[in-house]
Automatic annotation (TrEMBL), chains A, B, C, D:
Residues of the Phosphofructokinase domain: 9-316
Naturally occurring in which organism (per UniProt): Pelotomaculum thermopropionicum (strain DSM 13744 / JCM 10971 / SI)
Listed Gene3D superfamilies: 3.40.50.450, Phosphofructokinase domain (3.40.50.460)
Primary role: Catalyzes the phosphorylation of D-fructose 6-phosphate to fructose 1,6-bisphosphate by ATP, the first committing step of glycolysis.
Protein name: ATP-dependent 6-phosphofructokinase
HAMAP family (UniProt xref): Phosphofructokinase_III
Pfam families found in the cross-reference section: PFK
Record's GO cellular component terms: 6-phosphofructokinase complex
NCBIfam families documented for this protein: PFK_mixed, PRK03202.1
Length: 367, 367, 367, 367
């Protein structure tokens, strides 16, 4: 099934949660395919949904003109529609069916020789199975705004989200200072606390709570009171949505991610706020940054990394390296098997350089 | 009591909610007082609290160097501490007392000849009473981020908040488009919907809900379904926190404003979201912009208006126009009596130019 | 000739220099025309060039989707191609001919009943002549990034340029401070100094030089030395490109504007810099902001004003008010005859509120 | 001479050109020294000038509060004042003298045990000599906005400059497109073209000219004409100030860098523009970004790297690793001897990944 014929036509789709830089990847895929290798390109709409329902369109250079600085994805995306477990209503009942044969069929209808999947853990796992079980010539491009993929040094979208969160802290800073309040910012990061950690350092936070370091609320309160005793009348706290107290549970209620499963979202910021207000007697306010972290004009770094990924993915296709995924091993773009890439999270090293730096400039992690 | 002696020394304070441009006003007051009129300036800390408890400091040009582009107020502010109704614990009971004599005393201790109060409706009402009842030579500078003061064409801080809200809509746009969702942005505006209205037009929203135009949820749902039927797979809805359904009540839970009274905040965005999700079957997400609207670097417009207000307030002092407040009557800085200035809100004219423009480009107000 | 038939189809073009908000006007014209009045819309490419050479395309709502926050104009623009004096090569010689009959012909070919011209002084003058001499049913939308049109309170694009200039001053501030230098920023403003004046106040400049107030270099040097004597080790100077010394000439060399004539640009910033460096002995550096002032994402204010103008222009068409131009008379959108609108510049009032405010906070105009 | 006593008090200075993140380094040095190690800190003003003339002040946590997001350096900086070759006027003649003994003396007067030098190649070379020849316990922090230091993966300030340049390209894009012009952006990069290369990729430039790849103007013109023939009516060209034609010379006239020597600046952008305008007949405009690249609020990345460097430098001091410099070996902060760190430039690899990526998406380097 994996007989590699000459590649003349490739498909591309974006899956999972929205992320700044997706358009830059699509643009680089299209430009490299057409200019460098004289290939044609088909884009599937709305992730695997388009692949299953055969919603597709030809992508030319004109289609990708001007999209480099735009957030989102011109192809649409979704975190539903797994072809190996596709929801249907049969006899009035919602059931899940394997419709992966339809995917193969649609790939053949379009005469596509290779498929580039831009997505997170969920999408890349599907990609891996399409490669292994269905023999599709798949190449992956990793996407996770949380930057929690172990197989690559960094993922695009993270730098933009990080700057959005840092600007939010800058804005809360003046309010905190003027009103002598504790201001809490809740940011993304279900399992890995990178956005909270890095925006907290960049924004000059006093407390950072991340999933990797379970916190004790007394320690947090102690830090804020210590600051007050030193004459500092306000404090800034950055909380990852997946932060949890020592011995406690995560309180995420609903989060839009590349999970193909409903999950729960929100709440940790509020929970921490009540405890701080009670424990310190200081006015405490919460801001949940939410979807703003996924939007906006990508930073220069994200545009460059996304461009390198897109170009790299086409190069992998032309080298016949199917079942692999592009990755960054600073300063080079390399590749790893999808099988290795998915599944393992890149968590914040609890005793690593960055946490140590944060502690040395006086930031508390509540531990 | 209102014998006007030669002014040699003025006081200044900021009261009520944080607002971009407060520092620019303070800077202009200090520079104009010192450079133009050879006065000295005393700043009171944390609004009327500092005036009651005599927390004050001399302000020199060095103190205001570099603060023009900074959000917040170097003097601190609060929306508590009304000198005519000041909370105290007496015999274990919280009671409210008139401590306005202490204010007069502290003004005399510092040898202050005139007091500039930068604040919203609450603070300016106190200013009016200090002028009328206590004979203090008060001049006011209006501050309301909601831009809802009838006595002036525009207030500083509004333009910055408007741009922050517009940028947020820009960010939500790409996510809405990529995921085919309804995205809701809840912005400030308890009684007047200016921020929602103007950011909605600037951001290209499809629906805008404001307090002045009670909405019917069926109309909102109708609009979104109409768009979907035209092939537009997403919609953007901007909701002022004070928006309310026809015949319904405002659902604000707690809002930090210049009210000197606790109020309730949040929720209208979520309420509308549930109804839209149910009514359209489309994924709907809410972002509450909250405190981010009060922070950040002031826009050029706000810095200029704030500077003109600050300079204008000192000019009023020197002209002996006490009990008055600076205001903008485009393109001039003028003044009005505090008695006229407070109390009356500048609401969005329901049949005015701007609402009509919005409707003509296809925006629904749910009416 | 001015027999008004029922309007069913309108044309639109953009002329003169690029300006943030042009796309927002086009979008509002198209949306209002189609949604509100069921008209169809034709867009001419590259200003009057497209009207002469009949380069045109139908504009639908899909064409204007997503262009609200984008700088530039999807129609293209140019500051050449006056139909009453159109350059041609005849017998190897460049000559200028009246080709306005071709314009009328093309208007008729497309079945256009009214033409909306978005442009500056040059374009609107042509519009006036097409209305007066050729009987075309013309409506104008004023565009000048310099904000120097007497017939309207403000023009779109100015607020964006002002914020770009102010951010540039903010950036130069830190360099000036760190290196103890005099930093000069040269901004647009050939005849009117609005951008220099307002960005100078907003950015906290020490000296502002504008065309309306001829400067004496000794006064500028004096101000900088006075600051140094007060221990302030740097100074910021904002210079409008049209600033000139008392009794001297403007030194603009080439400037891209809506002039339909070649002009000269640059140099005043450098001229002033050499004199300051010589007169004070301080390191002095110049930044010419140039084209950056015309680009970028329009501010909320500019998007709203542009939208109101676009909608207002279509309303004028439907009211049969030809030969008129939309204008802002705060807070209303009104109209004035094109004949009144063009020709007279709105200069900075030398003794007005704003200049006085600037002087009161210590800014020197070199006078 | 290098007898290491217990460190109780450290000095810090910033040398060379202004760079976003300098304040973040100073803040981290002060916080880490005081909080983590109970040291005291002395700041010298204006680079080595302050060390020679003994202009110094104690730095406390209060001094560094709020400076994290601010560009520039609170200590001041200069690219003059080499203590081993210090300019003096003797008998009316300007001569250069070794005054390094004064440096040692001042270090002793303040009881300083170790000196942290934050600077570029010039400053670090002086640091190396103070360590080697004078036995001062020096630790270095590398600073170069051009990112051209071989000893570290990245330097702070570069990411901010890169984003400033990318935003400028975004702004020029709309003007180029609207006017069908060639727009040229001249950016920093005397010897290494990193800013031009990366901003060019991020901004979607069509041509990038860097010092490492001498260009042939015919190739540049060819590329622009090729685009025009494909219907693309504009082109964007990014030029590093040090770019030069094949066989030609660099034309920099005066550049403010860490050189301790006067150099020449400007001109390559204009030179290329004339040739393009002549060769293509298209309107061509130049923007020189200049000092704007050094200013502004540092990006999150730069604030974090600067914080890690500052903390890392104090850690080096406490570990007794004198004569060394902190560096980034992704993802770790490490150190290298100053002797290795200076002198060798990190140039753009002409056949590296990034240049190849750029070529694959269709960017020409004029080679």
């Amino acid at each position: 099934m994996t007989i590699k014929k000459t590649v003349r036509r490739i498909g591309v789709l974006t899956g999972g949660g929205d992320c700044p830089g997706l358009n830059a990847v699509i643009r680089a895929v299209v430009k490299t395919a057409i200019r460098e290798y004289r290939l044609s390109v088909v884009g599937f709409e709305n992730g695997f949904g388009g692949l299953i329902q055969n919603r597709a369109r030809e992508l030319t250079e004109a289609d990708v003109a001007g999209i480099l600085p735009r957030g989102g994805t011109i192809l649409g995306t979704t975190n539903r529609d797994n072809p190996f477990s596709y929801p249907m209503i049969i006899n009035g009942q919602k059931v899940f069916r394997d419709v992966s044969d339809r995917v193969v069929e649609n790939i053949n209808i379009h005469g596509i020789d290779a498929l580039i999947i831009i997505g997170g853990d969920g999408s890349l796992t599907i990609g891996k199975e399409l490669f292994e079980k269905k023999g599709l010539q798949v190449v992956g491009v990793p996407k996770t705004i949380d930057n929690d993929l172990s197989a690559t040094d960094q993922t695009f979208g993270f730098d933009t989200a990080l700057n959005t969160a840092t600007e939010a802290i800058d804005k809360l800073h003046t309010t905190a200072e003027s009103h002598h309040r504790v201001m809490i910012l809740e940011v993304m990061g279900r399992y890995a606390g990178w956005i909270a950690l890095e925006s907290g350092i960049a924004g000059g936070a006093d407390v950072i709570l991340i999933p990797e370091i379970p916190y004790r609320i007394e320690k947090v309160i102690e830090k804020i009171i210590e600051r007050r005793n030193l004459g500092k009348k306000f404090s800034l706290v950055v909380v990852a949505e997946g932060a949890k107290p020592l011995g406690g549970e995560m309180v995420i209620q609903r989060r839009v991610e590349d999970s193909f499963e409903p999950i729960r979202l929100g709440g940790i910021g509020n929970a921490v706020a009540s405890q701080i207000e009670e424990g310190t007697g200081m006015e405490t306010r919460v801001t949940v940054l939410g979807h703003l972290q996924r939007g906006g004009i990508p930073t220069a770094f994200d545009r460059i990394l996304a461009t390198r990924y897109g170009t790299g993915a086409v190069n992998l296709v032309m080298a016949g390296k199917f079942g692999e995924m592009v990755c960054l091993r600073t300063p080079h773009i390399m590749s790893v098997p999808l099988a290795e890439a998915v599944g393992e999270l890149r968590l914040v090293p609890v005793d690593g350089d960055i946490v140590r730096t944060a502690k040395q400039v006086g930031i508390s992690f509540g531990d």
